[in-house]
Amino acid sequence: MPDKEQAGSSPLDARAAILSELVDYQEGSIVSRTIIDKKAGTVTLFAFAAGQGLSEHTAPYDALVHVLDGEVEITIAGKPLHVKTGEAVIMPANQPHALRALTNFKMILTMIRS
């Protein structure tokens, strides 16, 4: 039987995990789970139901999106990119970007603050 997650700890602290299994799809919703939240940056898992998305916005730091499952359209500075399972893209700092789930999709978002 797996160890229970302790309050304040990450499900990856000193153990292996399958990232795509740490968040579940919820119809009509976006689900997120923070894995690391430090002054230097964050690592967050997301599960988007098909059709869900994030409207155009900017961030002051580069962000790496790694698609764990499904397909997403990521628009960066007006240029749409079709990103699918196993692929990754960097959303550069201060450039407008938006996401739209083409299918149910899961991603890991890594943001380094520097």
TrEMBL record:
Pfam families: Cupin_2. It comes from the Bacteria. Residues 45-112 form the Cupin type-2 domain. InterPro entries: Cupin_2 (IPR013096), RmlC-like_jellyroll (IPR014710), RmlC_Cupin_sf (IPR011051). SUPFAM superfamilies: RmlC-like cupins. This is Cupin domain protein. It comes from Neomoorella thermoacetica (Clostridium thermoaceticum). The lineage of its organism: Bacteria, Bacillati, Bacillota, Clostridia, Neomoorellales.
